[in-house]
Structure formats: C-alpha cells, structure tokens
Amino acid sequence: MTDIQKAAQIIQEGGLVAFPTETVYGLGADALNPYAVARIFEVKNRPQFDPLIVHVADLRQADILVQKFPDKALKLVEKFWPGPLTVVLPKSSLVPDIVTSSLPTVAIRVPHHPLALGLIRESGRPLAAPSANPFGQVSPTTAEHVKKSFGGKIEMILDGGPCRIGVESTVVSFVEKEPVLLRPGGVPLEEMQALIGRVAVRTTASETPLAPGQLPQHYAPRTPLVLEESLESLPAGKKIGLLTLREPPDVSPYAAVEILSAKGDLREAAANLFAAMRRLDERNLDLLVAHPVPHEGLGRAINDRLYKASHKK
Ligand code: TXA
Ligand code: MG
Fold it and tell me: Of 42, 82, 135, 245, which shows the fewest CB atoms inside 10 Å?
C-alpha cells in the first residue's frame, strides 16, 4: 500500500491526516463526515465558531458543494485553481453545519500539491482542513512542525517537504454584491483586481473583525512580538530577536536576527516567514521585533500575519 492509499483509507474511516499543500500543512478530515470534522476542532482546540476550508480536486467537485458560482468567482478560480485561492459561496445542503460553523456559506479551494490532490482523489472525499497548528499559533510549513504539535494525536502525517508559498490562501467572499477580500494570502490582491475589477478589503488589519476566524490575535509565537518600523529605543537588558525582510544596517542590538529575503523578494520572504518565526520563538528571547514589509503583492499577506502575531498592549 502506498502512503496515499493508507492516508485515503484513514480519511474514509473518519480519521485525521495532516497533508502538505503549496501554502501550509493542513489537518484534514472527510468534510462530509461530521464526527471526523468534530475531531479537527478537538485536536486543534479550535472554537466552534471558526469555519473550515473544504479542499477539493477540481471545479466539478466544488460545484456540488455550492449553490452556484457567480461569474467573477468562476473567472478567478479558472485562473488560480489549483492554487492559493479560497472562495466563499452560498453552500449546498451536502455540506454539514459543523464545517461552516452553521453559516449558510462554505469556503472552498483546490490546493496545488500532488500529495493533497492525490489524497482527495484516492479517498474520493472533499477534505475539511484548517492549518495543522493548535488554534492561534504559528502555521506549519514542514511536516516536522506538524509533528511537534500533533505527533501521536493524529493518525498520519504526509511529508511533502517545505511548503512552496508559505502563507495561507487568499480568502475572497462572493456572498454580497461585490467581492470581499477576507484574508490576504498567496494570490495577491492586485492580480485578482486585474482580472475582475474592484475587490473590497475587509481583513482584521482594518480593525473590524466581521467574519469568524478573523480574530485579531492569531499566527502568534509565545514570545511577545511587536510590529514596528523602528523602535525609538530598544528596552535595555532584554534579549531581543529581529524579524526583517533584508539585512539591517546594525545587528548589534539583537540576540538573534532572521532575514526573510536578502534580495528583498516578497515571495521568498513569505515562504520563509513561519519557519523564521518558529526559530526565533525557540531561542527563549524576551521580545521579538518585526519590521513591516512593503504592502504590495505577497507583502500584504506577510504584514497581515505579522500584525496578527503581534501581542497587543
Ligand atoms: O492555505 C490555506 O488556506 C490553509 C491550507 C491548509 O489550505 N488552510 C487554512 O485554514 O488556512 P484555516 O482554518 O487556518 O483558515 C481558514 C480561514 C479562517 O479565517 C476562516 O474564518 C475562513 O477561512 N473561513 C472559512 N469558512 C468561511 C466562511 N464560510 N465565511 C467566511 N470565512 C470563512
Ligand atoms: Mg490557521
């Protein structure tokens, strides 16, 4: 039996399998089995009001889970699926309430990863899968990260190496008259706008959590993190870690420095973000300082994660 066949059997029997996607690792269960999905919430310690994304292999499999695809949603998925784009649409009666936290809508995407697609196809089931991390903590971009949180607690972890994109999918809702960006992610806002025109932005960075799961603190390391262009003065006598895009002019104040992309490439930075945050978190520092990155392309998703990781006073 191959690993995919083993994993598919676990899914069919109502078990949990962590699997790689191009964005982050997911913690998957059969989306049509409410008992299996309930275990995701339990293992992650995730509040029931935070709905899950359903992963499917293609548009045909997505179609039966929703009422219909509006033209603009169709345009987007035709271009970006398989890929880091999640669309929120009115759900069909097939989707259990526990998946959507009883919302009348469902979030769906087609991941761009051979192991994820292999698992969906082999099991024949759509997979409900949040990121494979305990609720509120940093998302996993390697199988090792998943093992640290959930080793022994779930039936299987499929190892596909490090995730190529490194930040979660872009979430866009098509429930209102105009499309609304709920979470910036792997597909840049600019690329969506080029295709379908105006997309309203309603992420937590704008301070108004409207959708469930848009909690202000999320993706957080244990070490306090501040997001600042430049701190006037660093607190004395503290061990401080720096998370920054490029090499800073002076590294001497810091006990540890993580550079996300020496050449300032935002795609490379996104791919390194969560692993870098985890490395800093393991150094037993007193404080992490993160510099915001340029707010364009994948920079929007990076700034969103940094903002949510920052501990509010
Ligand atoms: O890249 C990703 O999207 C990863 C991989 C595993 O696919 N998954 C992921 O799942 O990030 P999760 O559960 O960590 O984040 C799902 C987000 C949450 O912010 C949730 O509130 C939102 O999607 N969401 C899910 N269903 C929704 C709905 N019906 N309406 C509005 N937001 C929804
Ligand atoms: Mg998550």
Answer: 42
